């Protein structure tokens, strides 16, 4: 979220462009070369002035001018490198998204857009220059997010372990309504046959068989005559063998069969109280991805995707055939372009917008993401009860944020280490 600090930084990084014509000799001087780009002396001077102005009421003194200049230069170098990465991978921020971002900046400062425009003018900045700086900041942020996200690997076991720790925090209030079937060992019965019977019962239950009827018929447990119903209990009130099996399952889950010293057990969670419930919309979509190259321009890609769409809609070819032949996303191309049921949040913003808003069965217009140009078709949407995943989702989010921050720092360091950065001295100018 944009705030006053970011607004000031945007002003600091952009002010030079608005004042170059006023003082061309003193201000329009290259101070630092960053790969193929430059940082002007005006950028550095204005950033330092802005920081001092923002710190005027802060009792904490700023460092010396030399140290402050060094820190400002480093910040501007990092910003420039990230903007260069955004250009390299083709991030484009359209005017609609830019307008939304500027509205957010105004709202975070308790201003209208008109009031924000006046604030920008007081900083000595034209509104057009400010808009373009915000556009660059968003593009740099999206490039960082896309490139860092691809470096993150979260193992299912990591999610499960953290989710269980989080579950322990909520177990004091969570209650489960459970039912139970017990198949008891006997001296004459083959235990392998008993396990086979238990697996067959689970298969029938998962296919929709009535649990109470199954308990009446097969269970040798203490609540068999109540249809296996144990009623409402917290985990701490359950037999340990039950509590050990109940982790993050949701209402309707069948658990088992699992073995104890007396036989095999099957549990059903009839209901849950006190656990966060989550219902989400999952989308099954398919897409075709084509990436621009030195030879194939954006315009060429658009023509090619438009021709593919025409062939599909005319019945000359199927979406799957076109995906297998043309899509440059090998994972989905082998599956006729299908991505499977996913929550839209897993996709990059432009793709997420398409799968959330596109009517089912309609092929989108070509659109661009950091991965290239796409056409997408939503095949089906479904509402999914993700109560069992509430803590897992929370755990995944915590792990993702941790790893993102770690990887983002490493990515920036690698970007900085591989960059050509040189400060231009007065002697360089003279020579």
From TrEMBL:
Transmembrane segments: none annotated. Residues 173-271, 280-380 form the PpiC domain. It is an enzyme of class 5 (isomerase). PANTHER family: CHAPERONE SURA. The keyword Signal applies. This is Chaperone SurA. One of its GO terms (molecular function) is peptidyl-prolyl cis-trans isomerase activity. Keywords: Chaperone, Isomerase, Periplasm, Repeat, Rotamase, Signal. Chaperone involved in the correct folding and assembly of outer membrane proteins. Recognizes specific patterns of aromatic residues and the orientation of their side chains, which are found more frequently in integral outer membrane proteins. May act in both early periplasmic and late outer membrane-associated steps of protein maturation. The PPIase activity resides only in the second parvulin domain. The N-terminal region and the C-terminal tail are necessary and sufficient for the chaperone activity of SurA. The PPIase activity is dispensable for SurA to function as a chaperone. The N-terminal region and the C-terminal tail are also required for porin recognition. Residues 1-22 form the signal peptide. Gene3D superfamilies: 3.10.50.40, Porin chaperone SurA, peptide-binding domain (1.10.4030.10). It comes from Vibrio astriarenae. The keyword Aminoacyl-tRNA synthetase does not apply. It is found in: Periplasm. GO terms for biological process: Gram-negative-bacterium-type cell outer membrane assembly; protein folding; protein stabilization.
